[in-house]
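ok so for the tutorial part 2 we go from a plain amino acid sequence to predicted structure tokens. step 1 is just haveing the sequence, like this:
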Amino acid sequence: MAMRGLPEVVEELYRLYPWHVGKKAAERAIKNALKRLALELKVSGSPNVGDEHQWLKEQVSAFAESPAGTRNGLFKGYMPPYPSTWFNQSRYLDDQEAWYPDGIRPVEVCEVAIETPEYKPSTKLLERMEKERRTGLEEARRRGLRDFSKHPLESWEVV
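step 2 — the prediction. this is what the tokens look like for a chain of 159 residues:
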């Protein structure tokens, strides 16, 4: 990543992170994380060299939207790590299943099920998706989780 524009990228990543504490330490950690990612991509011969800020932005956004990115998101009294800790420990490389209680992710709408002028999902596909959603809800309830909203993308909380 070129140094030009780096402060803006660092600020954007800091703003995306759900917990805004220790700003100076967080900014240093973000810069170091970007350097580590750039080096890893270069060494691995990845064609994505130079796109580490975009990849990291996606990881931060996914974390922020997960229960692990919210206060009391994984259990009562849970607090997300400080941003400097999260970036210094390369937590953006964690398995994202760990960001959800018992590895249960909220039901996400499959892209192919979105109706467009060129594509109308089959009734069979929509029925299968609804069945999977209900099965996921039943499994979550069995594990002692409950949803606070009927919206499928909302987070789960331990009861």
